[in-house]
Amino acid sequence: VHEVDNRRDSESEESEEESPADRNMIWIFSRRFQLSVPKLASRRRVVQELLNDLLRVSHNLFSDSFFPVLEPVIGVGSACEGWSPHKEEDIVYCMFVPLKPPRGHAFHLEPDCMGEMPQTSMRIRVELVCTCTGEQPDQNMLCFLHHSEQELKRNQVASLLHTLCTGPYLDGEKIALWFQTFVISAWSMVPQSRHYSMKVLPSCRSCKMKLMKASGRSIFVETVFSVQQGDSDIFLSSQPPEAQRPPSTTWLESYAVAEAKFFRHVAMRAPPRSCHLKCLRLCARILEGSGLSIYALKTTVMHLLTLIPLSEWQHKYLLMRVDDTMHYLRCCLEEKRLKHFFFDNEDMPQEISLPPAFQGAQPLNLFQHLAQDPAAQTEALKKFDDL
CA-CA to 113 of 20 to 30 Å: which in 20, 25, 94, 211? Predict the structure, then answer.
């Protein structure tokens, strides 16, 4: 889908229905804000293939251990959605690696009442479960619950509770260090090592890699560990926002998988050469220095994509949709309220699976800090109007 979008979104294409003035203005914006589409789809494919190959190696290396089971990667974030606001050399390809409990273990999600945001932070309690009874008892392992500690120490590797947990809770920092160490040791085993050199960059709660070709071109990758909430598209993420540093056993609720799924939904239904991704890129460049977060902008465009028919997102309407986006944001700043997209949203596409608690829940206000601080709202409005 992204490859099709990239071809459709070529700067050299023009629509006969666009007025010469609009074409000229779009060309000026494209040059001024460097809106040419990066090769997101091809690089994303390289990153996904690399991580899938690494996971295959991990399954072989850790098949007899009790580390978390690494599930297939899920591309998230703006680069995987097809619209990164950054310059090509600064783009980071973010991949979620969902974690499942190993044999003899279970994950239980608990609200983190000690955190600053208890509604969005949780802890993952790891419990040992019996493996010596049931319909298909595992004959190749000792039961952590029903064999003696001496037998376990002598004949079986340590449980997850004794490796990557702090107390009974899954520890994001320990998982990150474990995976970083694995990547360094396993690099020579993947085909990509013949074409790229690799450096693991410092990170406490994720695995950041820099892939370098002999030509000097680099690709930045961030692997974030996650645990799915039930069967929904909402996950708990090991990587907190940069401004936060919660305890290593605190995992924050993430909507990144649901957001990526929403943009795939739009891409399949939008008209040829839809302007919604270019609208995001252009508005992100315009808003640089305003203090408004990229997430607030992204939320605004997601709301507009459900409020304005997709037929009205043709390329010839780009300037109108940019104007709509800026006006919507301006109104939200005035009202000190921007509703989170995934809470109690009647326009949510059916294929996006949300936890039952999201339906009818009080929507989170992304501008709550402005409602609590009138001076901050005044400053935000001033910066916005200066733009």
Answer: 94
Q: Which residues are CB-contacts of 213 (< 8 A; sequence separation ≥ 6)?
A: 195, 196
Please determine, for residue 231, whether its predicted confidence score (pLDDT) is greater than 60.
yes
Residue 254 in tokens: 């993430």
Instruction: Supply the pLDDT for residue 22.
Output: 66
Q: What are the φ and ψ backbone dihedral angles of 286, each rounded to 5 degrees?
A: -65, -40
pLDDT at 165 over 90: yes
Q: What letters, b where the CB count within 10 A reaches 16 and e where it falls short, cover 36-50?
A: ebbebbebbebbbeb
Kindly report the number of other CB atoms within 10 A of residue 188's CB atom: 9
* For range 98-123, the mean pLDDT: 81
Q: Which of 318, 233, 232 has its CA nearest to residue 275?
A: 318
Options 1.10.1410.40, 3.20.20.70, 3.40.50.2000, 1.20.1270.20; CATH for 270-386 is 1.10.1410.40
**Residues listed for the chain:** 387
**Three-state secondary-structure class, residue 78:** helix
Alpha-carbon torsion angle 303, 92, 28, 380, nearest 10: 50
Gyration radius from the chain CA atoms? 23
H-helix or E-strand spanning residue 121 = strand 121-128
Distance (Å, whole) CA 354 – CA 359: 8
Residue with tokens 């892939």: 211
Share of the chain above pLDDT 90, in %: 61
Residue 75, helix vs strand vs coil: strand
**Cα 247 off chain centre by:** 20
Task: Give the model's pLDDT for residue 6.
Answer: 41
What pLDDT shows up at residue 16?
A: 43
pTM as predicted: 0.87
